[in-house]
């Protein structure tokens, strides 16, 4: 039996051993845990090292890409034709390109020492703003940071301190980091020397071109003036040749003499036509030929063509037919004179090259299906087809190809046989083109020719025109009735003795009394001594010309109402208006056409008797444009210009009337009413003209009172109202 002490000791020892064993197991467990931790840490370290290696490789790759990108950007910068300069906020240059190095001579290693201001000329730096207190701060950087932009033209300073010969366009902008912080400025400088030289050269070229254009315009003007002057100088003797030839042909002549004079007559008229053709061609080529746009009657134009052509048709024994389709509206708006000129040229050629047979003119609508006959529009486009057919000599295909060339005819023998210059068709083609049309010719040699041309006009449904029937050949066999001219006293005013004698002989053959004056002053002296039925006034005279003479004679008692007909070789477009404004009644161009001269004189001298009732009707009518247009030869353009000018001067004339009334000056009032009487009579305003005439006579002794002034002003305003309404439908 074990004693209790031993039992206790054994139990105690076993307990301690168990405790020790537990501690040892705990140590083994802690060591194993520490080993696991160490292994985990080692594994983590390996992963970290691997990640670091991966990042290092990525960084190497990115650095390589960055280097490649920098090299790429550098190559792009070096490929630029402009300087590129990167500047820090301190003004020091940090980066440049190839052009900077080549143009300014700086080396790459010198860049850190370059201040941007050192590249700018001193005069340019003084113009740049610098509001900072720091005098060391870059003016260039300061200017750009304040204004946000810089743009200058200037030379730059090279590395040796000298200015470049080249001029640069320098532009500057700011650039920032991705965080919005200012990093510096970016400058570009482009060599614009060649551009500026080109601009200078271009400017010099423009100046030279303008000078050349001015010289060309002056040459054209000189050419026009020369042609006009030569026309006048040629027409003056030609007028005498034609006139005296006509006189001689009316006298007793032998057969041989009459043949000679007929040749002279034909040649002189051919020369006259040549002058007209040359002037027209010159105007067309200079772009100075303007087309009228006035109402006219197509039948009247065709009547004029038959009138002009009838003698040649009769002489050749040809049949001449005018045919107009019923669908054609004869009331048109366009240029009747140019249309007539084309028809006369083409029909004249047809007659000239036709020895036997016929010549016909047919007019019809170009597109009959497109015409709206029911349209309420007072004006609508109308394209007409004019077809001139003859049974003449015809032409070959090669002759047709060069027909519209200037100065060319079918062949040289044509010119020798038939005469002419070859200008007629060339001018006709250009005139037809100006009328928005074209011209075509078909011909068979030995059988005849057909000329077709188209022209565009406005068809007028209600223009106040009266339709004119197509004329018959018998309408032109005799001169107009001139019985009333016998015994009339005529004054011929011309400084050319040949012209005076020629006109004198022509008028003496009609039984008229003719007196002559070689100057304007002689004409005024003659008018003060004798009353005349009509005065023929040359415009171009030395000392006092026809305009001045007419204005002076209108102030004389015997010269106030006498008809004055202007004679001139000047055929400019505004000559008629000039003559009418000067107080003349009509105008005739030189060389003078004998029949036309008789007609004009008869128109101004033979006036039908007017009954008291008819006179009262005229007075009651404020405005009668038909009478005025007849005196103007139905030149609507000139007439409308006169009406517009009269309306525009309303305020001025009414003020003048009021001032004349307030002044009580009889001479002033008489002059104003005399002037207004003539102007309104020219316009066809007979009512106001008669009123002014009576007041002019009244002002011999009595001043115009308030009531009379009111009557004149009212009549004036009524007239302007009528004129305004008239222009609305006739412009």
TrEMBL record:
Coiled-coil residues: 10-69, 195-222
Segments forming domain Histidine kinase: 229-459
Modified residues (4-aspartylphosphate): 538
Annotated Response regulatory domain residues: 489-605
Domain PAC per the UniProt entry, residue ranges: 150-204
Domain HPt: 635-730
Catalytic activity: ATP + protein L-histidine = ADP + protein N-phospho-L-histidine
Record key words, sorted: Coiled coil, Phosphoprotein, Two-component regulatory system
Gene3D superfamilies to which the protein is assigned, alphabetical: 1.10.287.130, 3.40.50.2300, Histidine kinase-like ATPase, C-terminal domain, HPT domain, PAS domain
Modification Phosphohistidine, positions: 674
Transmembrane segments: none
E.C. number: 2.7.13.3
PANTHER family to which the protein is assigned, alphabetical: HISTIDINE KINASE, HYBRID SIGNAL TRANSDUCTION HISTIDINE KINASE J
Protein name: histidine kinase
Provenance organism: Enterovibrio gelatinilyticus
């Amino acid at each position: 039996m074990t004693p209790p002490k031993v039992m206790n000791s054994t139990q105690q020892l076993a307990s301690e051993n168990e405790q020790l064993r537990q501690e040892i197991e705990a140590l083994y467990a802690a060591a194993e845990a520490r080993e696991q931790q160490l292994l985990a840490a080692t594994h983590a370290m390996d992963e970290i090292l691997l990640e670091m290696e991966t990042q290092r490789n990525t960084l190497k790759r990115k650095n390589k890409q960055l280097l490649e990108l920098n090299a790429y950007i550098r190559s792009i910068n070096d490929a630029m034709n402009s300087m590129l300069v990167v500047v820090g906020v301190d003004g020091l240059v940090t980066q440049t390109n190839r052009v900077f190095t080549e143009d300014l001579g700086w080396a790459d290693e010198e860049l850190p020492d370059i201040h941007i201001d050192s590249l700018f000329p001193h005069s340019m730096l003084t113009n740049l703003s610098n509001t900072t207190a720091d005098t060391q701060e870059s003016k260039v950087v300061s200017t750009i940071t304040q204004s946000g932009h810089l743009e200058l033209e200037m030379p730059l300073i090279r590395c040796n301190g000298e200015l470049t010969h080249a001029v640069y366009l320098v532009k500057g902008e700011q650039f920032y980091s991705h965080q919005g912080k200012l990093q510096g400025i970016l400058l570009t400088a482009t060599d614009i020397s060649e551009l500026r030289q080109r601009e200078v050269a271009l400017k010099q070229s423009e100046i030279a071109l303008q000078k050349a254009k001015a010289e060309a315009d002056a040459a054209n003007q000189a050419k026009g003036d020369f042609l006009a002057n030569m026309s006048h100088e040629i027409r003056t003797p030609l007028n005498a040749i034609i006139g005296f030839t006509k006189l001689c042909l009316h006298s007793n002549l032998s057969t041989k003499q009459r043949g000679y004079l007929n040749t002279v007559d034909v040649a002189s008229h051919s020369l006259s036509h040549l002058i007209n053709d040359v002037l027209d061609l010159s105007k067309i080529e200079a772009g100075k030929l303007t087309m009228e746009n006035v109402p006219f009657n197509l039948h009247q134009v065709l009547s004029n063509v038959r009138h002009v052509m009838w003698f040649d048709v009769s002489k050749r024994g040809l049949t001449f037919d005018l045919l107009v389709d019923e669908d054609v509206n004869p009331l048109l708006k366009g240029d009747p004179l140019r249309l007539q000129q084309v028809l006369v040229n083409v029909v004249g050629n047809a007659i000239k090259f036709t020895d036997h047979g016929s010549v016909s003119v047919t007019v019809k609508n170009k597109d009959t299906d497109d015409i709206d006959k029911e349209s309420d529009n007072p004006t609508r486009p109308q394209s007409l087809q004019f077809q001139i057919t003859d049974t003449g000599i015809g032409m070959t295909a090669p002759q047709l190809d060069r027909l519209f060339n200037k100065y060319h005819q079918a062949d040289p023998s044509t010119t020798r046989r038939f005469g002419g210059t070859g200008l007629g068709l060339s001018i006709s083609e250009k005139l037809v083109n100006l009328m928005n049309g074209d011209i075509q010719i078909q011909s068979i040699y030995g059988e005849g020719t057909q000329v077709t041309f188209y022209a565009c006009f406005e068809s007028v449904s209600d223009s106040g025109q009266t339709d004119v029937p197509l004329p018959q050949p018998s309408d032109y066999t005799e001169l107009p009735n001139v019985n009333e001219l016998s015994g009339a006293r005529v004054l011929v005013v011309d400084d050319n003795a040949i012209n005076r004698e020629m006109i004198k002989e022509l008028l003496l053959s009609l039984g008229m009394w003719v007196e002559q004056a070689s100057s304007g002053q002689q004409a005024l002296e003659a008018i003060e001594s004798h009353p005349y039925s009509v005065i023929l006034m040359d415009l171009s005279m030395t000392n006092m010309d026809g305009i001045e003479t007419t204005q002076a004679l209108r102030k004389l008692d015997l010269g106030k109402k006498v008809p004055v007909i202007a004679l001139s070789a000047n055929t400019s477009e505004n000559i008629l208006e000039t003559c009418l404004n000067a107080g003349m009644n009509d105008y005739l161009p030189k060389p003078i056409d004998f029949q036309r001269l008789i007609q004009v004189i008869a128109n101004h001298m033979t006036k039908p008797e007017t009954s008291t009732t008819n006179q009262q009707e005229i007075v009651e009518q404020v405005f009668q444009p038909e009478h005025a247009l007849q005196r103007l030869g139905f030149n609507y353009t000139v007439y409308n210009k006169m009406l517009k000018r009269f309306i525009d001067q309303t305020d001025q004339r009414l003020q003048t009337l009021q001032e004349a009334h307030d002044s009580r000056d009889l001479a002033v009032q008489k002059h104003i009413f005399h002037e207004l009487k003539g102007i309104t009579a020219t316009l066809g305003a007979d009512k106001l003209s008669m009123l002014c005439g009576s007041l002019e006579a009244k002002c011999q002794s009595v001043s115009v009172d308030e009531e009379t002034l009111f009557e004149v002003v009212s009549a004036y305003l009524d007239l302007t109202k009528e004129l305004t309404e008239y222009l609305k439908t006739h412009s």
